[in-house]
Amino acid sequence: MRLTLQMLISHGRMARRIGLGPESRINILRNILTGLVRHERIETTAGRADEVRFYAEKLIDYAKKGDTDEKAMKMATFWLTEKDLVPKLFKVLAPRFETQSYGYTRMVRIPNRLNLDRAHMAVLEYKGNPFPPLYPVKKENELTLLNQLLKGYREERAQELPTKA
């Protein structure tokens, strides 16, 4: 491969190169976004998840305008390849995020894929989905040094307060 000036300068290409060309890229993004609306949590490569995240948030913004809005319906029918998901978008997902103005999705990196490409993987999900959380809530451990010191300090303070009063 020859190293040329065209290879070094992007010349206006702002998006990631996914697939074989612009049409392939759009089709891949549409399929991933359709899977995200259907299942509300998907596992894909980190680059694709990062790209789809923008479109997933914009789709919710349009869905919040309602199914009577012409542009919202046009965007929903374009981005969702399965048309039976359009009512779910307007009746389930849009009301869930009615009070929020942004931040409808969560992206969590997971370990790399184990096959030959070792691609960076991520989980993309809509917030408020019915699945268990990806990271369990950390429980307070009383056996750590800091918690033992705090416990001793609180006991000393509890003993000092009645003696002063």
Architecture overview:
- The protein has 165 residues and is mainly α.
- The protein has helices spanning 5-8, 22-39, 46-63, 70-79, 86-96, 145-164, and strands at residues 41-45, 105-110, 121-126.
- It has a three-stranded antiparallel beta sheet, covered by helices on one side.
- Helix 2 (22-39) packs across helix 3 (46-63).
- The longest helix has 20 residues, at 145-164.
- It is elongated, with a radius of gyration of 24 Å.
- The relative contact order is 0.12.
- The mean pLDDT is 87.
Fold topology:
Blueprint (H helix, E strand, L loop, with lengths): L4 H4 L13 H18 L1 E5 H18 L6 H10 L6 H11 L8 E6 L10 E6 L18 H20 L1
Antiparallel strand pairs: 1-3, 2-3
Helix pairs in contact: 2-3
Biggest beta sheet attributes: 3 strands, antiparallel
Give me the side-by-side strand order of the main sheet: 1-3-2
**Strand elements, count:** 3
Order of helices and strands: HHEHHHEEH
Query: How many individual helices?
Result: 6
